[in-house]
Amino acid sequence: MKNASLLAGAIFATLATFEPVRADEGARWAACDAASAVANDETKTESYVSQWVKVSGANADKIGAECDAIIERLVERYGAPRTWTRFPVIFTGGGGSVAGYTSYAGGFVREVVVYQSFDVARGGTLDHELTHAFFFYWLDANFDLFLNEGAAQNSEYRRREALRRTVYSRYRNGDFVPIDKLYGRNSYDGSLLIYHQGFSVVDFLIARGGSKWFAAFLDDLTRGTRDINKALKGFYGYADLKELEADWLDYVEGGQDRAATRNVLE
Ligand SMILES: [Zn+2]
User: Fold this and answer.
1) Measuring CA to CA, which residue among 30, 24, 27, 28 is closest to residue 9?
2) Which label site among 34, 37, 193, 266 has the fewest CB atoms less than 10 Å from its CB?
3) What would the pLDDT profile of 117-143 be if each residue is shown by its tens digit?
C-alpha cells in the first residue's frame, strides 16, 4: 500500500480486525512509527548497501542481493524510475496475519518490512512489497489501490498460478463485485477482492499489451489525463470500466488464457 498522503491512517487501522487469506501491509500501518524508529537509527550498522536498498542483521548480503535482483527485474520490466532513494528492508518476526508492509514518508519510501522468512518471502511478499516501492518512485505519485495491489500481486511469481486458481474459484462462487466498486475505493475490503480481482485485472491488462504498455497506462492515469475512461480508451480501447470488465470476465471464464488474449498493439 502506498497512498500515504492520500489516505487516512484510520482506514488501515480498521484492517487489523479481519483475518486475511493473504495478509498484507495495511494492518500494520498504525505500527509504522515504532518500527521505523528502529530502522532509521543511524547508530545501527548496515551490512549491505546498494543503490536500491540497505539491509542489516542476519543474512543481510543474501537478502540485499535478492532485493537488488527483484528491483532490477522491475526496471527491466517496466522501465527505470526517475528518482530513487534507498530504503531499509527489514525481515523481522511477528506480524500475526500480516505478511509485510511498505511505508512512506513524504516523497520517500520509509521502509519495507517483511514478517516472513526469506525463503517464504522470495517470489512472494518480498517481491510484492518492493513492487509497491518501485511504483512509488516510478510514478512519483500515489495511485489507485486496486491497480496498485494488482501490480504488486502480479510480481509474486511463485504464486501466480495459485492466484489464477483462486480468482477462478471466486468467480465461480459468485464472489466478485463490479470493478468500478473496487477502482477508486482506495481502501481494503474484508474479503480481499482488491487483491484477487486486482491481480486478475492487472494480469489481463498486461496480457493485452505487455508490462511497459501497462506502466505507460498507469503513468497516463496518474500524471497524464488522470482520467480512467480516457486512459482506458487510449491504451486499451475501452470506453470505461464496464467495457473492460465485460472483456476481463470473458477472459476469466475462458480460463485466463493469456496466450489467447487479443494484443492491443497488433
Ligand atoms: Zn500490497
Assistant:
1) 30
2) 266
3) 999 999 999 999 999 999 999 998 778
In degrees and rounded to multiples of 5, residue 90 shows phi and psi of -120, 120
| Residue 59 Cα to ligand 1 middle (Å) | 24
**Alpha helices by DSSP H, 14-159:** 32-39, 60-78, 118-121, 125-139, 145-154
Q: How far is CA 253 from CA 194, 250, 264, in A?
A: 19, 5, 20
- Cα–Cα distance for residue pair 234/198, rounded to 1 Å: 20
For residue 97, the CA-to-ligand 1 centroid distance in Å is: 14
208 Cα: distance to centroid of ligand 1 (angstroms): 23
266 CA distance to ligand 1 middle (Å): 32
Q: Which has the minimum average pLDDT: 12-16, 97-101, 241-245, 254-258?
A: 12-16
CA proximity to 118, closest of 73, 57, 160: 57
What distance in angstroms lies between residue 143's CA and the mean position of ligand 1's atoms? Answer: 12
- Please give the pLDDT value at position 104: 94
How far, in Å, is the centroid of ligand 1 from the Cα of 8? 16
Summarize pLDDT for 183-220 with one digit per residue, the tens.
999 999 889 999 999 999 999 999 999 999 999 999 99
